[in-house]
Amino acid sequence: MSKSLSADELAVAAWPVAVGETIARRTTAVALVRGKLIVEVEDSTWQRPLFQLQSQILKSIGDLLGQGVVSDLEVRISGQRRPPQRAKQLAPETNDEADRIQDSVLRTIYRQARKKATA
């Protein structure tokens, strides 16, 4: 049973061969969208050189896959993506040392004495 690969799968698979081992270790071809190969990089340090090498990379991919399969590159900085989350209601925190006194009468006396001392 023979399964042919889609243009998207071919373009993603051709990326490491087209750019070489050094660049392939720092980048990831993600998808082919309407002829544009989406590539993710670690940071802007890699984004600029790939932009400058774009015509050479497109020629290399064209030599591997045929002209017209990949017509453009989009180089994005990858980030850790988190799904949307609901805000959590946090309980108010108090740093009042008086709250650690178990006896309510003693706690009140302590607070009054502290108030007088700081006045």
Tell me the CATH topology of the domain at 7-77.
GMP Synthetase, Chain A, domain 3
Q: How many strands, which pairing sense, and closed or not: the largest β-sheet?
A: 3 strands, mixed
Principal-axis shape equals rod-shaped
Q: Which second-level CATH architecture of the domain at 7-77 applies? A: 2-Layer Sandwich
Number of strands: 3
Head-to-tail CA distance between termini: 88 Å
Strand content: 15-25%
Task: Looking at this protein, list some descriptive labels.
single chain; 119 residues; alpha+beta; GMP Synthetase, Chain A, domain 3
What does this structure look like?
By secondary structure, the chain is α+β, with helices and mostly antiparallel strands. It has a domain at 7-77: GMP Synthetase, Chain A, domain 3. The chain is built from five helices and three strands. It has a three-stranded mixed sheet. A hairpin with a 2-residue loop joins strand 1 and strand 2. The mean pLDDT is 85.
Write the layout of secondary structure elements.
Elements (H helix, E strand, L loop, with lengths): L6 H13 L1 H6 E7 L2 E6 L2 H9 L1 H12 L6 E6 L26 H15 L1
Parallel strand pairs: 2-3
Antiparallel strand pairs: 1-2
Short characterization:
This protein is α+β, with helices and mostly antiparallel strands and 119 residues long. The protein has helices spanning 7-19, 21-26, 44-52, 54-65, 104-118; strands spanning 27-33, 36-41, 72-77.
